[in-house]
Design goal:
Elements lengths: L1 H15 L2 E2 L5 H32 L2 E2 L7 E2 L3 H8 L1 H32 L5 H13 L2 H11 L5 H8 L17 H26 L3 H9 L4 H12 L1 H16 L3 H7 L8 H10 L4 H29 L7 H22 L4 E2 H11 L1
Parallel strand pairs: 1-4
Antiparallel strand pairs: 2-3
Helix pairs in contact: 3-14, 4-8, 4-11, 5-8, 6-12, 11-14, 13-14
Length: 354
Amino acid sequence: MTATTAGATVDETRADVPFNTQPRDWRRGVIIVLFCLIPVTLLVVFTYVPFGSMIGYSFYKMKYIGTPRWVGLDNYVQVFTRPDTLSSLKLSLYYMVGALLQVALALYLATVLSFKVKCGNFFKAVYFFPYLINGIAIGFIFKFFFTRGFVFDSVLQWCGFDLKSLPYWLKDQRINNWSLVGTSIWRYLGQNVILFIGSMMSIDSSLYEAAEIDGANKFQQFRHIILPGIKTILVLNVILSITGSLSAFEAPFVITTGANGTATYFVLMDHLAHTNQKVGLASAMAIVLLVIILICALLQKLLFAYVFRDADDGTQKALKKAKKMEKQRRKLQRRNAALFRDGASKSATGKAVA
C-alpha cells in the first residue's frame, strides 16, 4: 500500500513536469561560451600571464635590454635588507593611520546624513565629488595648495599666522607625509561616506521606531542597530583603505616626486624599475607587497569576525538554515522527477495508449 502510494506520487510529480517541445539550440550554448571566452581571455592575457612573468623576473638580475642573470632569492633578500625599501614600508604607517581616520570620519558623517538633515543630498554630492577627480589632477591641485606662500599659507595668514612661523608643508620631514595623507583623506572620504550611507539605507526603518519607543538615544541606535547592520560594508571599507594605504602612489609621485623622505613603497618601486632599470628587484618588491596586502586583509577579516561575533541576533543563522533546507528540498525533487520530458516521449506515449 505504501509503495503504491509512493509510486503514484512520483508519477503525479512527473506528470506535472512540462514537455520540452523545443529542440536543444546548440547555437545558444556556443554564443554563451564565446561571450565568456572574450573577457576570460583578456583577463588571462593581460593579468595572469604578465603576473606569472613578473614572478619569473623576480629571480633574475635584469634590465629591459640585455641578458638576464639568474640570482635566485637574492632580490627578495634585498627587499628586506635595503634601507630605502624598509623606510618606504615604514611610510605606509602614516597612510594606515590616515585610512583609519578616514573610515571613522566617513562613518560619523554617513550616520549624520542617514537621518533627516537639511540639504542632505547637497552634502552627499560635496563629499563624493573629489573622488570623481583624476588622481593626477588632484596631485597638481595640492602641489600648488601646499607650496610656500600659496593657497594654504595665504588662508593661514588671513587667520593671523605669520608666514615665517609656518613650516614648509612639502619639505619639512616632520610634517610633509601628514600633508600627503591629508590629500588622500580628502580624495577618498566621499567614497566611504556613500558606501556607508547606502548600507544604512537598507536597514529597516521600523527598527529605529521601535528603538525610539523603548527610549534609545541616537548613540544607542548607532551602536545596536546601525553598526551591526553595516558590518559587511564596514569591513570592506577598512580592508580597502588599509590595502590602499600600502600602495599609495599618485599623491607622493605627483606632489613631491618622492623627495624629502616621501617616497612610498610604490614610488620607490617605480623608480627602481624605470629609472635604475632594476626590473628583477622591482618585481620582487611587487610580489612582497602582494603577500603583505593578502596577510593584512586576512588579519582584518579575522579581527572583525572576532569583534562582531555577538552582533548577530539569530537572523543570519536562520537564513543560512533556511537556505540549506531549500537546497536539500530541491536536490530531492530533482532526484525524484526529471526537469523536462522530451517531445518524442510524448508521441511515443500517445502511440502506446492508442
